[in-house]
Write a structure and sequence with these properties.
With 99 residues, the chain is α+β, with helices and mostly antiparallel strands. The protein has a single domain, classed as 2-Layer Sandwich (Alpha-Beta Plaits). It is built from three helices and four strands. It has a four-stranded antiparallel sheet, with helices on one face. The radius of gyration is 15 Å and the shape is globular.
C-alpha cells in the first residue's frame, strides 16, 4: 500500500514556519526503512498496512510533542499483491506521456 500524508502542527516558529516540526516527522519516516518520498506537500510511504500506519502514528506523535494540536491529511492506495509502486506508478505515467 501507498500512503501519502501531510502533518501540520498548529504552532509555528517566530516567522510562522513549521519546517522544524515537519523535519522531525520526515526523520521518523526515513528512519523507518520503508520506501518513501517527500515532496513540497506530502510524504509518501510504501509498505504493509500495520507498518505504514505505525510510522504515520510515530510521525504524528513527534509533531504532537511540540504542538498542542496537529492536523493530518492522509490518502491511501490499497492494492494487495503490488510492491514497488512508489516508483512504478510514476514510470507508467511517464511511458504513457511518451506515446
Amino acid at each position: 500500500m501507498l500512503v501519502a500524508f501531510s502533518i501540520s502542527p498548529s504552532s509555528s516558529d517566530d516567522t510562522g514556519g513549521v519546517s522544524e516540526a515537519v523535519a522531525a516527522a520526515v526523520r521518523v519516516v526515513r528512519e523507518s526503512g520503508l520506501p518513501n518520498e517527500t515532496t513540497s506537500m506530502f510524504t509518501t510511504i510504501e509498505g504493509e498496512w500495520d507498518e505504514v500506519m505505525a510510522v504515520v502514528k510515530q510521525a504524528v506523535d513527534v509533531v504532537a510533542a511540540t504542538s498542542p494540536r496537529v492536523g493530518l491529511v492522509l490518502k491511501a492506495d490499497i492494492r494487495p499483491g503490488f510492491t514497488g509502486e512508489l516508483a512504478a506508478k510514476v514510470e507508467r505515467v511517464e511511458r504513457a506521456l511518451e506515446r
